[in-house]
Structure formats: structure tokens, C-alpha cells
Amino acid sequence: MDQETANALFEQGACLLFLEAPPNLEFGIDYNAWTIGPLFKGVKMIPPGLHFVYFSVISREGIQGMRTGFFRYFESKEVHVREWNPQTEDLRDETEMDPNQVERYKINIRDFDRNMGPYPLDPPTYYQRWQKLTGYITPGLVRRVLPNNGKVSHLPSAQKDQDIIQVKDKRMGRSIEKEEGMEFTAFDLRQSFPKGASGQEVTRWSLDKSWLANDLLKNVYHDDHHSMLGEMQLAFVCLLMAQNFSGFNQWKQFVHLFCSCQDLVEKRPDIFIDFINVLQAQLDECPEDFFRDILSENNFVSAMLKNLKEHIPATNEELMDKFDKLKQFLSRRFNWEIPESDSEEQDHEDAPTIVEM
User: Fold this and answer.
1) CB 229 within 8 A of CB 255
2) Distance of alpha carbon 170 from alpha carbon 294, whole angstroms
3) Which segments in the chain show pLDDT lower than 70?
4) Cβ(256)–Cβ(262) under 8 Å?
5) CB of 119 within 8 A of CB of 74?
6) Domains of the chain (ranges plus CATH)?
7) What does DSSP assign to residue 289?
8) Which InterPro entries does the annotation name (predicted)?
9) How far is CA 105 from the centre of its chain?
10) Contact 353, 203 (CB under 8 A)
11) Are 119 and 46 in contact (CB under 8 A)?
């Protein structure tokens, strides 16, 4: 980091004060993680904007526990205080601490300076990758989806709507419930038609998910497809950074939806140019085994992208070019090709509904 950038961040950057850190704790922010000890007091010079802070306990045997964390939009010059709770092995936020003591910490933040590490901006590509991965996530979206102060939980929810919230973790050989405090937008790809639809409409909108996508855009995302893509980004980061399977399930829902909208592709190609950009940035962050074993399980990515390609009008050169660049990226990055034939069978669970007239 050059001196000019360092001086600017010192004056404008945010601080995260982390108190009472236990020994041998993995602590991270965005793409940077360290094993810390009791002298560590937090991170300074954090660029204003969205960040993901996470930690996991490492046992005496060197076994790393489950990663827990929270999203937060840091304001310029903000000082945010968290304190380790040894009873729960979790962080207390400011609302659980003595407010007078919290205020003293903030006023005297320079007293902790020597024990706070600077946010790593060298190499700068790490922060640039983080911005690209999270560019559409807004503070309002984080508050809506993660109402518990941005916390990403692994505790099962008390809700029992299993048709919507259950996701199969085949690596563990069991189902995983929706995690507590995770409020992703619920939608059912098998009910992608309006209430009271005729048999012909049920067939049409079961094959083409454009009605469902438009309904979500209008009623949830205020006709802003960037907000919709922001939730897809948030879901993916919850999976990638926190191994959260509610995020995995929601990400798959969005990919399936965006790849199944023939009518919307023709009318709003700009949405799908942005979708491909978001998807490629996400896949670029995946280790090869993660891409093949998790994201491509049961040929999911293959079937979805094949579906999307079939919906792109040959006359839309810009969108065709964007899709071709995605194909080239997949071939180069994973030595993986999108199939051209119709030989693959569709997943029965999400197969379209055909209504005989």
C-alpha cells in the first residue's frame, strides 16, 4: 500500500475493535484470515462499504470449528466494537455491552492502535475481487435477509415449512434445515404461474419462469434487477465464506430462475447480461473441486446454462457474445464445456408442469 492510500485510509477508514480475543482463534475479514492471540485488538483502516467478518475456534488438537460471521456496512471513520463471549464462543455486539464503556472505547480508539492490524490492500486484487463479488448488495438487503445484526447462523430455525426451507446436503447424507435468522426471499419454482391460471397458462409459465421472475421483480425488488442480483450475490457469499447451506439453496434457486426465462430474455436482455457477469465472477472464486463437487452436482450448472443458451435470441449479438465469453471462461478455468445436445434428462423434482387440455 502506498503512503498516500495509507494516509487516506487512516483518516477515512473504519475500525473494528475486537476485545478479549482467545488464543488460537481464526479471525478474518473478506478474503483475509489469520490465527490470532490475546494481544490482537482488531482491524483498522477498513475501506468504507460492505465487509464480512468471521471467526472459528481452533481446538487444542488443531481442528477448526464451524465458521461464524456477520456482514456489516462500515461507514467512514466508524468505530465498531465487538467482544468475545467465552461462554457462548461467540461475539457480543454493542447492544449487549455497557454503553458507557463502549463509548469510552470509541473515544480512546488510538490507545488500541498498536494492537490493531491494517486492512490488507496489498495485493489490491483481493479487495477488488471482494467488491466485484458483492457490488449489488445494499445495506437494506443485508438488514432484510440477515435481521440479526447481519449474522450468518448455522443454528436450525424453529420454522417448519420444509417445502421451502429444506435443502439436501448430499455430502453429509442428510437434510439441512433453514438456519436461524436467515430470511432469504422465498419462492417456489414449481409454482411459477399466477393464482387462478388457466391450464394453458400453467403449462406456459411452468416451462417459462418469466412470470415468476417479473412477479418477484415487481413485488420484492421494486423493479430493480440489481437488487435481485444482490440477493443472489449475498446467498453465494454466505456459501463461499461461511459454508452456509441456506445460501447454497437460494443461490441455486436464482440460477435456475434466471436460466429459465425465455420471454424475459427477449424483452429485457440487459438483466441477463448483468446475470452472466455476476455468475462468472462467482464461479471465478470457486476452487475446482468446489465447482465440480458442489455447484455442478447432478449436472446442475451444465443443465441450467444449456437452458439459458437455448433462450437467447440469435439476433441479440451482445447477449450471445456475453454467453460465449462465459463458455470460454469455463473451458479455460475448469476445462469444462456446456453440452450442445438434448440428451441430458431434466431433474424430476423441478421439471415443468404440463397440463393436458
Assistant:
1) no
2) 9
3) 1-3, 5-6, 154-180, 296, 341-357
4) no
5) no
6) 11-133 (2.60.34.20), 184-334 (1.25.40.550)
7) H
8) AAR2, AAR2_C, AAR2_C_sf, Aar2_N, AAR2_N_sf
9) 32
10) yes
11) yes
Residue reference for cell 449487549: 96
Please name the residues in contact with 356: beta carbons below 8 A apart, sequence gap of 6 or more.
Answer: 199
49 pairs with which residues across the strands? 74
Per residue in 287-328, pLDDT (tens digit) is: 888 877 777 677 788 889 999 999 999 999 999 999 999 999
How far from the centroid of its chain's Cα atoms is residue 203's Cα?
32
Q: 24 in the Ramachandran plot: left (φ > 0), alpha (ψ -120 to 50) or beta?
A: left
Query: Beta 42-46 vs 151-152: how paired, if at all?
Result: unpaired
Strand segments, DSSP code E, in the chain are 14-19, 25-29, 32-36, 42-46, 49-57, 68-74, 79-85, 90-92, 117-118, 151-152, 167-169, 174-176
| Residue 251, CA atoms < 13 Å, CB-side half-sphere | 23
Q: How far is C-alpha 8 from the geometric centre of its chain's CA atoms? A: 29
**Per-residue cell: 282:** 462467482
